[in-house]
Amino acid sequence: MQTQAYKIADIRTRGINPNYWYVVARSTEVTDKPIGVTLWKQEIVLYRDATGTIQALEDVCPHRLVKLSEGQVVGGQLECAYHGWQFNEMGRCTAVPYLAENQKLPNCQIRRYPVRELDGFVWLFPGEEDADLVEPLGVPEWDHLNYIATVSVIDCPGHYSYLIENLMDMHHGHLHDNYQAWASASLLNIETQEARVDAHYEAQSYYRIDKIWSISQLFFPALRRLHPEPLDVSYVYPHWVSSLGQDFKIYCLFCPISETQTKAYLIHFTSLNAFWRLHKLPVVFRRFVKDSLFGSAQKLLDGLVEQDVAMIEQEQQAFLKNSRQRTYELNRTIAKVQRLIYEQAQRENSLD
Ligand code: FES
Ligand SMILES: [Fe+2]
């Protein structure tokens, strides 16, 4: 048995390993009107350039240190709201409206972040290492015609460790009552690797999505029948993925903001894989089915998030009141998750 090299209190203020791809926005949020986002205390401006490509720069105008996200995009250049200096996607100054003939453009350089638009989300790499050597997790079901998606945004007033522990701990179904897709989870085994923890549970699922009418189980509780299904949850640093049998897949994409604030995107997919007849229909029709059912689990997902966030907020407040207060844990998964957080944040160049 490994000894614990950290105190729980250390976990609650731990920084992030920045050499991974984090999710900072949904694709649709980024237009040619700049927006500001925060990833672990770093303020970043996102915008689309003249070709529609998303760019990410530090959200600070080098002239007087105001926010560039309050400016606008003009001819593909990011223009500061204050004096109208313009910057290209490399973060170099390209124009100053009042530059005299005998003056040169200031030789300033704004920090530029590797950023990718993938599967409906904006992925950003805040680290110093080579971003091309690490692949973003991605959400392959996002564009797949057999999956119906629902997205819920989590604004969580707590450290990211509380949120990932909540997601990895399937024994808190008690909290969710009517909203939960499963019951009676029992932990079978846990596997750990350098950057992931996989916990395998056996649970009782309420849903069996095998006939087209069975979709209505999502809306009418009386149609649900409990039956055993594997429930797998994985911390794929820094994100979370879960599947319940063949029918459901959920992702939680993380954007840790500070020691006491975390943003995340919860994406729920209902699989239509079992409907082979549907797959023979023209792609246009299948696309129509996918798009018209988008968001069909919204009430369920938002309800779950609200209940979880309320608990996490209390955990965070209790920690702030007394960081040495002892807590008790029976789920072995949590210790593995905490060790991973500790070790990842321990690495060279991690952000505190
Ligand atoms: S502060 Fe940005 S242009 Fe002056
Ligand atoms: Fe939950």
List descriptors.
single chain, 352 residues, alpha+beta, Rieske Iron-sulfur Protein, Naphthalene 1,2-dioxygenase Alpha Subunit, Chain A, domain 1, seven-stranded antiparallel beta sheet, four-stranded antiparallel beta sheet, 20% helix, globular, binds FE2/S2 (inorganic) cluster, binds fe (ii) ion
Account of the 3D structure:
The chain has about 350 residues and is of the alpha+beta class. It folds into 2 domains: about 20-135, 3-layer Sandwich (Rieske Iron-sulfur Protein); about 140-345, Naphthalene 1,2-dioxygenase Alpha Subunit, Chain A, domain 1, CATH 3.90.380. It has helices spanning about 10, 160-170, 175, 275-280, 285-295, 300-320, 330-345, and strands spanning about 20-25, 35-40, 40-50, 55-60, 70-75, 75-80, 85, 95, 115-120, 120-125, 145-155, 180-195, 195-205, 225-235, 240-245, 250-260, 260-270. A hairpin with a 2-residue loop joins strand 16 and strand 17. The longest helix has 24 residues, at about 300-320.
Q: Count the beta strands.
A: 17
> Can you give the helix content as a percent range?
10-25%
Query: What global shape is seen?
Result: globular
CATH structural class of the largest domain? Alpha Beta
Bound molecules: FE2/S2 (inorganic) cluster, fe (ii) ion
Structural class: alpha+beta
Order of helices and strands: HEEEEEEEEEEEHHEEEEEEHHHH
The DSSP helix count reads 7
Which strands sit side by side, in order, in the main sheet? 11-17-16-15-14-13-12
First-to-last CA distance: 29 Å
Low-confidence stretches: none
Proper CATH architecture of the largest domain: Alpha-Beta Complex
